[in-house]
Amino acid sequence: MAHFMDVHRGVRGITPDQFHQAHQDDLEREKEEGVHFEHAWADPESGTIYCLSEGPSAEAVQRVHERAGHKADEIHEVSMIV
Question: Of the CATH numbers 3.30.420.40, 3.30.70.3090, 3.20.20.70, 3.30.70.1350, which one belongs to the domain with range 2-78?
Answer without folding.
Answer: 3.30.70.3090
